[in-house]
Amino acid sequence: MESRKIQEVKGSFYVYLPKNWCARSKLKGGSEVNFQELEDGSLIVFSGKEAYKRKIEGTFDIENCDPNMAYVMLLSCYIVGLDQVNVVSTKEISLEVREDIERSVRGMIGIEVVDETDKSILIKDISEGTSIRPIIQRLLNTTGYILNSVVRVLGNGDQKEAQVIVNRDDDVDRYNWLVQRMVHLILENPSLARQLNILPIEGLHYSHITRYIERIADHAVAIAEQILATGVANDELSKFAERANDLYSSLLNVFFNRNLSKAFEILEQRSSLKKELRRLESEFPEYKVIIIHLERIIDYCSDISETAIDQTLYEMVLKGKTIKCGQ
């Protein structure tokens, strides 16, 4: 970090731009620069009329990778925000490996295989700038649909609907990965944060929240898998799952409307719901695994509420508002 003294000339203030930065940005006398004041009071200077985005490209040698390792590596490249990945090998890439890569890429929103040779596969980001909030809303809604289905199948043991729940987990994963990718890009590239109209710290909150939502979906899917394996049907568990689903549904109000009172209400319900789970556990010990998954869903709803409280208070402080209890 560099520091420079402000010069004052006839009531106006001046500061010299770093010479090396001007050279890299190809600025000279008469060039135009743009300023953006963020909500936290900091000032960003960027060159040109268009926001600058540094392209991140990588090469992935797949020759000695087994399919699982290759999938994890490609997913990591996606999440950290690479714009282009060139998958290479010194030997011809087999049709089976190509199909595995194609299948993996189809699960990652916004990227596609755009070119390939016998020894390489080029994967690129073809998406335009996307707002992060609608993606999170889609993630919330998809997980809400899964929880609604869990309430039903716990009551009727419907194997077909339980399988549908398991299948929908892939959609939740895709939306979560996309949010994690966008958060990485926002932290690496302040101009994208301006474009999406969010602060980097807000991106971190979104990252935490979407991870919690994805884990709620994982536990709901685990319940469906138990139903597929054992044919469970229990009205008491179904009724409790409905209460957990109501708790989750109220998160929409907390998240999008910044409703602090509703967030604290969710935190207060956590203790009483856990007591109810202990009763169910003693009454139906054979369903302990399902009860554990229901408990984790309650915990993650509380975690989302806590993060929403952090985010709301931060926004209030930046806007100079007085924090009051019961808002």
Outline the structure in words:
- The protein folds into 3 domains: 7-47, no CATH class; 57-125, 2-Layer Sandwich (Ribosomal Protein S8, Chain: A, domain 1), CATH 3.30.1370; 132-318, Up-down Bundle (Methane Monooxygenase Hydroxylase, Chain G, domain 1), CATH 1.20.58.220.
- It is 61% helix and 12% strand.
- It has helices spanning 19-24, 67-79, 95-106, 132-156, 159-188, 190-196, 200-230, 235-249, 251-257, 260-283, 288-318, and strands spanning 7-9, 12-14, 33-37, 43-47, 57-61, 84-88, 111-117, 120-125.
- The strands form 3 sheets. It has a 4-stranded mixed β-sheet, covered by helices on one side. Strands 1-2 form a two-stranded antiparallel ribbon.
- Strand 1 and strand 2 form a beta hairpin.
- The chain is flat, with a radius of gyration of 25 Å.
